[in-house]
Amino acid sequence: MINIQMVDLRSQYHNIQQEIDKAILDVVESSAFINGPAVKQFADNLAKYLNVKHVIPCANGTDALQIAMMALDLEPGDEVITPSFSYIAAAETIAILRLKPVFVDSDPNTFNIDIESLKKAITPKTKAIIPVHLFGQVCDMQPILEIANNYDIPVIEDTAQAIGAEYTFSDGTKKKAGTMGTVGTTSFFPSKNLGCYGDGGAMFTNDDTLAEKLRMIANHGSKVRYYHEIVGMNSRLDSIQAAILDVKLKYLDNYILARRQAADKYDALLKDMNEVITPYRAPYGYHVFHQYTLRLKKQNNQEVHKKLAQKNIPSMIYYPVVGHKQNMFSAYHAIYLPVAEQLQKEVLSLPMHTELTDIQISYITDHLKEIVYNS
Ligand SMILES: *Cc1c(COP(=O)(O)O)cnc(C)c1O
User: Fold this and answer.
1) Which residues line ligand 1 at a C-beta cut-off of 6 Å?
2) What is the pTM of this model?
């Protein structure tokens, strides 16, 4: 019996166990658990990797979004545009701050924010745009930034699923996801492409003034201890997590290659199946395959998910309920976003991680074919 996991963090750990264990023990030995040197070292190394001026660590990817919006001085009732077909964090933090989420539709190929929908959603009250680089694929940032610049609207790039992904502008310039907008945010949740062993997050920016403000908000609105300039929160990346991340950052490019190889293998084995659409790779992007997400053209995704589970093959539906259909957003239920609503019925994410073997992938695709052809 072949044992396949959606994400295999234990094998990944075992491959770098000595380095990780030493990094953890060094922090414990130093007892610099909060804001220790490990945090600064990791932030500096990540800034170098991303080619961005400032990396501001925080407690998780959801806080990063909230702090980014707090730093932009948005007023209650201001509109913030974000895709409905996404993880809930952006919409939720918009609502927490008493801002108004404006849900827009997605592109059926990339699963990312649809440019035409974005254009149509802009009003004089639009005060931020949050594109989400979903499943490891960058959004089409050039038109997004053009629209944002025309209307002078800040862009917060949610990079929780796409750290290391790259965008190529029409003049050939390449930039890493999260470093093109006003602020980039990310999560180091264990299963993310760069994950720690608990919770963690960060914000990125090239703007010195904004960086200082983000740092203050994450630290109780304070620069000097016990003196509080603005209302902030307590959102820290702890030193042990930073030390783990600093080790894993060295392997990030290799991890991305492993994910891309697994995706190539899936593509090759599934290419003759008319019943599924394999992930599109936008020509402007370097896809880092946080997820390998199919669209099922004939079957219901919940059914296929259940049948795979009966064969001991994990799969996930990201996301079964789009933002504007969530109970927390009951006032939005009447909105119709055709692509987002179609995708929630079609998408199925197959196991994807850095330790996936060709044998496992063949086993998964063989069973997927059997299920799809026999139903
Ligand atoms: C994981 C994720 C987040 C939230 O990250 P946490 O660290 O769990 O708070 C935000 N946005 C997207 C797109 C995510 O995938």
Assistant:
1) 60-62, 87, 89, 132, 158, 160-161, 187, 189, 199, 201
2) 0.97
